[in-house]
Amino acid sequence: MTDKEIGWDGGGWQPPPRPRRVRLSGAYAVLEPLDPERHAEHLHSAYREDVEGEIWDYLPYGPFDSLPAFREWAAAAAETEDPLFFAIRDRDREQFGGVASFLRIKPESGSIEVGHINLSPSLQRTRAATESMFLMMRWAFEAGYRRYEWKCNALNRRSRRSAARLGLSYEGVFRQATISKGRNRDTAWFAAVDGEWPRLRSAFETWLSPGNFDESGGQKRSLASLTKSILSAMDPVLEEGARAPGDSARRESGVVRGRGRSPAAAEAPGRSGPAMSKALEPRPDVLDFLRTRRSRPAKTLTGPAPGRAEIGKLLRSAARSPDHGKLEPWRFIVIDRKALTRISELARARGEDLGLDPATVEKARSAFSGSPLVIAVVSSPKPSEKIPQVEQTLSAGAVCLALLNAALASGWGANWLTSWLALDREFLGTALGLEEHEFVAGFIHVGTETSVPPDRPRPDTDAITSWLDE
To answer: Is 96 helix (H, G, I), strand (E, B) or coil?
Structure first.
C-alpha cells in the first residue's frame, strides 16, 4: 500500500512529555498551577462579578454561592493531573481572574486539549485572556504535541467564536455526546495541528505586539483577521449565522440553555436573560415608563457612569432585541473616558481633513470628549440568503433603542447619537477598528443626569395612523 492509503510516515516523531505543574509567563498574563490556598479566594471574588452566574452555564459544575464551596472544588481540581488546572493572573491588574486546564492528554498520539476555561467578567476580552490561551498552545506545540483540541457545548456560540478567533479549525459536532447538569450536550470539535503552528504563532505575536494597540488600548488589527486564513474549515454556524446543532430539539423540549430556560428567555444561545420566562401579564409600570421615557441630552451627562458589571446588565438587556435568523448582526464597543479622549481628537482631525466647517467639527469632537461613557452599537450584517441586509440593519437599530431604554430604566441619563462619524469609513477603521462592511448604528451616551429636560412635542398618532378594516 502507498502512504496515501495508510497514512504518511511519522518521520521519527516521538511522544512528548506530559505537562507539568509549571508557571507559564507572558507580557500580559501569568498561568500558575492551581493552588486553593493561594488562588481560591481571589478567583471566587472575581467570579462573583458575574452576578447571574452565566459563566457556569456550559461547565459541568458551579456556580458556587460560597467561598468554602468553591474552595472545596478548587482543592479537588488542584489534585488532578488530567485535567491539569492553572490559575490565570492579569499582570496589568495584578489579579487572578480565571482558570484553564490541559485535559485528555495523550502523549502516545500527540494530542492534548485545552478546556475548563472559565474567565471572570474583568478578565474577558483582555490581552491577558488572549495571551493565556497563546501560552498554553505554545507550550503544547513546542513540547512536541501534534494536535491541540478545543471542544465545547454546540449551543455555546461564544466558545465557538473564541475557537475560530484563536485559529482552531472546525471539525464537526458529536451529537448527543454526553449529559451535563442533566441536559443533553452535543459537542462541537475544533483543533489546530503542528503544521499550522508557525503561522499561528506569528499571528498571536503580531496581535500581542504593543504596536498593535493604540494609546487607549484599542486593537489595530483583530486576531480573527490574522488567523482566518490559517483555518482549514470554518464553523458553518458562525459563517452563515445558522442555528447551532441541537436548537430544534432544544426548542421542542422548552429548554434554551443549560439552566432550563424557555425559548423566549434567550434569543441567542450563550447570551443572558432572566432565569425563566413568565406568562404574559399586564405591566402598567413598564407601560408607563415607555409612555413617558425621555432621553437626556448627551452634553448634560456627567460622571459617574455605570461600572463594568452594570454595563453588562445593560448590554444583556439590549441583546434581547428581535434578531430573525439568530444572526447576531451587531456587536458592542464600550468606550471609556481614556479612549473617548483619543477618539475625540481623531474626530477633530478627520473633520478637518474633510474640510468641514469648524462648528460641525467641534460638535463631533465634544460629543466624545465631554461624555463619561459611550457604547457603540456596531451594525455587522452577516451573509444570509433568508434575512436581507436591511432587516439586519433594523435589528441593530432595535438594539440601540433597547440599550437606551435599559439605561434610562436603570436610572442613568442616556442618549442615542450618530452624526457623520457613524458612516465615515476612515474614522470607523482608525478609531474603532471596524471591518469594511460594518458601521455604527448608534453611539449610546450614558452617565449621570445633571438636569431634567422638558418634554418635547410628540407625534399625533391619530394623524399618522391608518386603519385597514377590510
So the answer is: strand
Distance in angstroms (rounded) separating the CA atoms of residues 72 and 61 = 12
Residue pair 352/362 in contact by the 8 Å Cβ criterion: no
Phi, psi of 95 (to 5 degrees): -130, 140
Residue 373 and residue 341: Cα distance in Å, rounded? 11
- Indicate the SS3 state at residue 242: coil
The pLDDT of residue 51: 84
Q: Where are the beta strands (DSSP E) in 84-220?
A: 84-90, 95-106, 111-119, 147-153, 169-180, 183-193
* Rounded Cα gap, residues 209 and 376, in angstroms: 25
Question: Mean pLDDT score of the chain, rounded to an integer?
Answer: 88
Residues 365 and 427 sit within 8 Å (Cβ to Cβ): no
- Classify 11 as helix, strand or coil: coil
Residue 253 has pLDDT above 60, yes or no: no
Quick one: pLDDT band at residue 262, thresholds 50, 70, 90?
Answer: very low
| pLDDT tens, position by position, 398-410 | 999 999 999 999 9
Answer for the pair 435, 286: CB distance below 8 angstroms, yes or no. Answer: no
What H or E segment, with its residue span, contains residue 154? none
Q: What angle do the packed helices 284-292 and 389-409 form, to 10 degrees?
A: 100
Q: Are strands 111-119 and 147-153 parallel, antiparallel or unpaired?
A: parallel
Q: 437-441 long-range CB contacts below 8 Å, 24 or more apart?
A: 437/380, 437/381, 438/378, 438/379, 438/380, 439/378, 439/379, 440/376, 440/377, 440/378, 440/379, 441/330, 441/377, 441/378, 441/379, 441/393, 441/396, 441/397, 441/399, 441/400
pTM above 0.85, yes or no: no
pLDDT tens for residues 354-384?
Answer: 999 999 999 999 999 989 999 999 999 999 9
Whether residue 88 contacts residue 96, with contact meaning beta carbons closer than 8 Å, is answered with yes
Amino acid at 50: D
Chain centroid offset of residue 338 CA: 21
Q: CA-CA distance, 104 to 86, in Å (whole number)?
A: 15
pLDDT, tens digit (0-9, with 9 covering 90-100), for 190-223? 999 999 999 999 999 999 999 999 887 888 899 9
- Alpha carbon of residue 159 to chain centroid: 9
Please check whether residue 94 is in contact with residue 29, taking contact to mean a CB–CB distance below 8 angstroms: no
Cell 483583530 belongs to 222
Cα dihedral 383/389/393/394 (nearest 10): -120
What span, in angstroms and rounded, lies between the C-alpha atoms of 98 and 42? 9
Q: CB neighbours (10 Å) of residue 110?
A: 21
